[in-house]
Amino acid sequence: MRTLFSAYEKLMDIIYSVIRICIAAALVVMVVVTFVEVIRRYAFGLSFIWSEELVRFLLVATSFLGGAAAYRAKALALLDLVTSRLNHATQKIIDMIVTIMIIGVCGYLSVQGYAYSFSPQIANMLSTGLDLQMTYVYLTIPIGFTLIILFGIEHLAQTLFFAPDESVGELKEKEG
C-alpha cells in the first residue's frame, strides 16, 4: 500500500510542480502584456485587439489552477475555531468528511464543466480577439476541479494511513 501511495504522491508532486510553473508563466505573460498595453495605449494611442482577452483568459486559468495548488499546499483559508478544540480522532474524522465533501462537490462541478466545455454552443464559439476555440478557455475550470479531486484523494489517503503531517517520503527517511 505504501509503494502504491508513494507512486501516487510522486505523481501529485510532479503535477503540483507543473501547475506552479504554468501559473508563474501565466502571471509573467499577464504582467508583460498589460505593461506593454498600457505603454502602447497611452504613449501611442494604439492597442492590440487580443491583449485584454488574453489577460482575462489567463486570469481565469490561474484562478482555478491556483486554487488547486493552494488546496494541495494547505494554503486555503481554514476556519478551525471549533475543530481545534476537539480531540485528534474527532478532528481526523471531520477532516475526512470535509475532504469527501470537497471531492464530491468538485466531482459534480468537473462533470458539469466538461459537459459544458464540450457542448456544441461552446465548441463552435471562437473568441473575438484571439480567434481561439472557447472550449480551451472553458476547460481550465473543470481541469482545476479535477486537480482538486486528485489532491483531495491524496489528502484523504494521508489522513487515513499516515500520522498527521507525515507522508510516504518522510516515512522512508525515518526507516532508512
Automatic annotation (TrEMBL):
Protein's organism: Pusillibacter faecalis
Main location: membrane
Family, per entry: Belongs to the TRAP transporter small permease family.
Pfam families: DctQ
Cellular location(s): Cell inner membrane
Topology in membrane: Multi-pass membrane protein
Protein name: Tripartite ATP-independent periplasmic transporters DctQ component domain-containing protein
Transmembrane segments: 21-42, 54-73, 93-115, 135-153
A biological process term (GO) from this entry: C4-dicarboxylate transport
Top-level division of the source organism's lineage: Bacteria
GO molecular function per UniProt: transmembrane transporter activity
Lineage: Bacteria, Bacillati, Bacillota, Clostridia, Eubacteriales
Start and end residues of each Tripartite ATP-independent periplasmic transporters DctQ component domain: 30-160
InterPro entries assigned: DctQ, TRAP_DctQ
CC per GO annotation: plasma membrane
Keywords: Cell inner membrane, Cell membrane, Membrane, Transmembrane, Transmembrane helix, Transport
